[in-house]
Amino acid sequence: MIKKIFNSAVSKFGSKAKPSTTNKYFQNDQEYLDTLKVYLTTEVYRELYYNHQGDYNSFLKAEEFIDSLHDGAHKIPYLKQSNRIEEIINHQVLEIFESIHSYGGKNSYPPPLKESTFLYRSMEEKVKRCLLIKETHNHGEPIEHPRGFKLHIKPSMLDHKEAGYGLHVEGDIFPGTVIGFYPGHTYDGNILPAQVIMDNDYMIARYDGTVIDGRGWTRKAEELMLKNELHQVLGSSGGRHTDLLRFKNPFAIGNFINHPPAGVRPNVIAYNFNFKRNFPQHLKPYIPNHIATEDKTFKDDSLYLRSLVLVALAPIQDTELFLNYRFNPANKYPDWYNDPDIEESKRRWGERERLSLRMWEYSIEGKVDVGGIPALLFFSELPPSSIAAIPFIYIASINSNGFIDDINSFHNEYINTSMVKNSDRNNNNNRGRSEMALLDRYSI
């Protein structure tokens, strides 16, 4: 039933997308589709938990809701979709954080294998680490989610040599559920040190060009465990060590999700989430992100931290979670990488059209060619499988000219894009743009 709803509703917009026969692909087409898909999942969640108290059988009998979602979701204005998505995700994030605060947080990462094993400086070192993970069967402690299922970091079921840990589910997850967060230091895309990018496959980017480094975060967590600081220093939930409580958020585990193998569909999506300054003060210490660099030119004073949430896009039961990394099809893929939908990938890496104030009605004012260097963050609908055919989110790119298409600034809160002017840059920013060219090799 859910599969039918998602495929049918999304297909109603399909005719508006630019045809591939023109050899022109447009990111805006994919952005509109992606937002629609996230809207569908969160509406399912809203109906299931708010009106049916989590009773899935009761939900399936709600024919009026199912028919309206099936027939009318594609007609809902873009801005209204975004607002409703934000509303339901905000509610879930607060529920998760209050749960964490109730027991003071805990660490869900596996114990370190040995000192500095995470600091691999070559592919050979990375492969050795992955093999060691599987040989030792190292794993973290299961984490109880407020919705009743458990999350468990343990060796991935993938058999390729670069797969180490994976994030596994014990129990049932319904579409639209916020599963966890992508932790890490946040960087402005134009102020991104080369040493952070190099050989780093734990990086993920947002629509606004913010890049989150999950590798550095995991490394810091391992260092704390090796020094036994995580228990000795963080044994108290207060005091001067509250700045370290972010490492005790057990749901900061998005950096452990793998890309799916051939024939297996991704089941989660990474979606932009902004922690606002009015986020409850007692919960802020558990936010698993920290600003490393930022562009203050168009700073929104209402924002506290930029982050990413991981949301279920299918019914999930007792399996490993997978996120489509969505690499650029213009580049050579790693041997283990399977592209689930090449047309979706080409649209994501296509031209960027300038958005009008009526973007939510899909009104276009112009086009900007962004070339082939990584830019923004989008989703994709994937081939059907036995669970449900629903879409997912991926890495996109920064303009080859060093800017993201200018968007009306008041739209930032809703579509998480920012204005980065195509003007003369100073030497530091010119260096930053060349470093961004490395990013299309990586996602998480």
TrEMBL record:
InterPro entries: SET_dom_sf, SETD9. This is SET domain-containing protein. It comes from Polysphondylium violaceum.
